[in-house]
Amino acid sequence: MHAVIALSALPLFLGALLSDWAYSSSFQVQWINFSSWLIAGALVLAGFALLFALVDVLRRRGNVVYLLLLLATFVLGFINALVHARDAFATMPAGLALSAVVAVLAAAAGGVGLSLLRRRLA
């Protein structure tokens, strides 16, 4: 179940990346607001996935690599949320770079989670 939750955070992180890109090309402040809300929603989903993955690892059924990818996604996503909490002009270029890194980490975590899910079902 947590692999699906982890993969559900990916579109939100990608939306934040696209919002940051739109802000960097137009400088309309509303794009940063969109990005902040998308990151907050993605962190909620990533937090639940992280919690469930931690429980699986503690029960000796989970994968540590998957847990570490989720942890890195959550920590860098939280730092990204703090960067986006600053003034809109001060957010760039660090916000755009962090959004790209977090989106890649979320995609990697989702991919690993789905491959683990396929192995369990097979």
From TrEMBL:
Domain of life: Bacteria
Keyword Membrane applies: yes
Alphabetically ordered keywords of this record: Membrane, Transmembrane, Transmembrane helix
Bilayer-spanning residue ranges: 34-57, 64-83, 95-117
Protein name, UniProt field: Succinate dehydrogenase cytochrome b subunit family protein
Organism field: Pelomonas dachongensis
